[in-house]
Amino acid sequence: MSEAWSWDSIGFPVTLSLQIACFSSIAVFIISIAVATLMGKYSFPGKVILETIFMLPLVLPPSVVGLLLLTILGRRSWIGQAAEWLTHQPIVFSVTGAVIAATVVAFPLVYQTLKTGFALVNRDVLESARSQGANELQVLVYMILPLAWRSLITGFVLGFARALGEFGATLMVAGNIPGKTQTLPTAIYFAVDAGNMQLAWSMTIITILISFILLLLTSNIRGSD
C-alpha cells in the first residue's frame, strides 16, 4: 500500500500532469483565439488546406504526431539546436517538450470550439462597432470575446482535459523519466506493464475523477442560459 501511495509513484505524476495541462491549455487558448480570429476574418487561396493541417493532430495517431515533433524539435533539427543553444538544454525529454506535445494535440479541439463560437456572434453587431470607429483589436476584446464567453470557457476546459490525458506524443517527445517527465498517462501505462495494478488503478481513478469534473463543468456551461 505504501508503494502505491508514495509521493514518487503518484504525487509527482499528478502534479506534473496538472502543471503541463495548465501551461499547455493557456498556450493553446491564446494561440487558438488568434488563429480562429484571423481564419474567420480573412479568405485566401489554400485556406482549406491550412485548416485541414490544423485539424490533423485530431485524427492522426499520437505516435505519428510524436514522431513529427521529435523530428522537428530533436537535437538534429535547427529548431532543437537553436533552443538548446539558448536554454542550454534540449527540448526533447524535458517538461518543455511535454508542454509542446500537449499543446499541439489539444490545439484542434480548442481551435474548432472557438471558431464555432466566434462564428455564432452576430455580424451586424460587429459591423456596427466598426462603423463607430472601433479597430479590430477592440472589436475582438470588447465584442467577440464577451459574446462568445461560453465557447471560450468550454474550449479552455476541453484543452486542459485533452492535455491532461495526452500520452502517445508526450511519451515520444518527453519520454517517461520518473521524477522528471513522468505524467499520469505514462505512469499508468508503465505501472500496468510492470504488473503493479494497485498503482495503476489508483492513478486511473484520479484521472477519471479529474476528467469527470472537467466534462461536467463544460456540460453545465453549454446548458446554461
Outline of this structure?
The protein is mainly alpha-helical and 225 residues long. Helix content is 78%, strand content 0%.
Structural commentary:
With 225 residues, this protein is mainly alpha-helical. It has a single domain, classed as MetI-like fold. Helix content is 78%, strand content 0%. The protein is built from eleven helices and no strands. It starts with 6 loop residues before the first helix and ends with a helix. 34% of the residues are buried.
Task: Tell me the layout of helices and strands.
Elements: H1 7-41, H2 47-59, H3 62-73, H4 78-87, H5 95-119, H6 123-131, H7 136-147, H8 149-164, H9 168-174, H10 184-193, H11 197-223
Helix pairs in contact: 1-5, 1-8, 2-5, 3-5, 3-9, 5-8, 5-9, 6-7, 8-11, 10-11
